[in-house]
Design brief:
- The chain is of the alpha+beta class and 204 residues long.
- It contains nine helices and six strands.
- A three-stranded antiparallel β-sheet has the order 1-3-2.
- The longest helix has 17 residues.
- The two termini are 36 Å apart.
- The relative contact order is 0.17.
């Protein structure tokens, strides 16, 4: 392990949360390219040695966390409660936002055919979605998008890794069940791991 890799490991461990790549490069006084090379080397090292920790890239941020394989044991040690599963309604709303973001609540209601206010509020409270400004139309409705926690929860680095949706004919009704099932991977209802410095971080 090089000095830069060791420094990156130390900084991420101490931070206990995702840190932007530019901020890490500035802190370690290296170029962005060098920082990314060190991150890739660390990630490969952890994987090759089958370490209990792994390096996650969340869009333009990096974070250390425990491997999903040891998540249950880590929670038992830290006495964290197991996160509850999302309801079918919550998965439907989360799916719409994930694939169509940023979207308004009215857009979600129109697709589902029911009022989604409570579900949207619940997802925002869990930190899986957040406000993304307002639409420039009368009433200026709030726009919603997924969060960094959403990426961690579904074990993806960016939205580009979401499963592809079946092509839809122009007048074909969007199938929410198909989109919801696309998000229900084996680890869809559990945090990727326990983050360094924050063993209680989890979502439901």
């Amino acid at each position: 392990m090089t000095e830069l890799e060791a420094g990156l490991e130390a900084v991420l461990f101490a931070a206990g949360e995702a840190v932007s790549i530019d901020r890490l490069a500035a802190a370690l006084e290296v170029s962005r390219g060098s920082l990314l090379e060190a991150a890739a080397a660390l990630e490969n090292l952890y994987d090759f040695e089958n370490r209990g920790i792994m390096l996650l890239r969340l869009e333009d941020k990096l974070q250390l966390c425990s491997r999903p394989l040891y998540a249950d044991a880590a929670r038992r040690v830290t006495e964290s409660r197991r996160p509850p599963s999302l309801s079918p309604a919550a998965l439907e709303v989360l799916t719409i936002i994930a694939y169509r973001q940023p979207v308004t609540r009215a857009f979600i209601d129109q697709l589902r055919g029911v009022d989604s206010g409570g579900t949207v509020a619940g997802l925002a409270e869990k930190g899986l979605i957040e406000e993304a400004g307002r639409m420039d139309v009368p009433g200026r409705p709030i726009l919603y998008r997924t969060t960094e926690l959403f990426l961690r929860t579904f074990a993806i680095s960016s939205l580009s890794e979401l499963p592809a949706l079946p092509s839809l004919e122009e007048n074909e009704q969007m199938s929410l069940e198909v989109e919801a099932s696309a998000l229900q991977a084996d680890d869809a209802q559990r945090f990727t791991g326990v983050t360094a410095g924050n063993p209680d971080a989890e979502t439901g």
